[in-house]
Amino acid sequence: MEKKDKQFEERLLEVRRVTRVTKGGRQLAFRAVMVIGDKKGTIGLGIAKSSDVIGAIQKATHDAYKNLKKVPVVGADSVPYLKTFKFKSAIVRLIPAGPGTGLKAGSSVRSVLELAGYNNILSKIIGTNNKLNNALATIYALTMYKSNGFKRDIEKS
Q1: What is the rounded CA–CA span in Å between residue 123 and residue 93?
Q2: Which end of the chain is more exposed for a tag (fewer CB within 10 A), N or C?
Q3: For residue 126, which phi and psi values (nearest 5 degrees)?
Q4: pLDDT tens for residues 104-133?
Q5: Is-contact 42 68, C-beta < 8 A?
Q6: This prediction's pTM
Q7: CATH number listed for the domain at residues 72-146
């Protein structure tokens, strides 16, 4: 496990207090959303709940390591082509950019793209400001790219 910790960078996206109403009253818990990435085309997202914040973060990190996905990073550390993806009410548009443009993204989309290894990309979030849905929409959009001609670029980085 120590080898993975040095290879991957971890980032906490959100901690939210959630309650469940039962017969005996309200039960308080915390939900943590963690994103991990190696900045070379591998990204993972974990979601977990626990009665304390530290436990939720540890569980979410462990879940993120179990859900690793490869994404294509081509050319000038950008995406291969324009992609718009809808997940629930979150719509994320990823636009390729040339060298020197930088990472122009907001909210959780920025964290996901940074940890995946993108340096030149434009993005737009439409529909919601929910960090979890925006992060999931971004990860699904990145994994939906066809990787036929981009395999060489993924292996190179």
Answers
A1: 5
A2: N
A3: -130, 135
A4: 998 899 999 999 999 999 999 999 999 999
A5: yes
A6: 0.86
A7: 3.30.230.10
User: Mean pLDDT in the chain?
Assistant: 88
SS3 7: helix
Q: Give start-end residues of each CATH 3.30.160.20 domain in the chain.
A: 2-69
Decide if 109 contacts 123 (C-beta within 8 A). yes
Show the tokens assigned to 92.
């994320």
Contact 121/104 with Cβ under 8 angstroms? Answer: yes
Closest to 139 measured CA to CA, from 53, 47, 55, 76: 47
Helix H segments across 67-120?
A: 107-116
The CATH architecture one would assign to domain 2-69 is: 2-Layer Sandwich (3.30)
Give the position of tokens 């790219």.
145
Contact 121, 95 (CB under 8 A): yes
Block residue for tokens 């550390």: 77
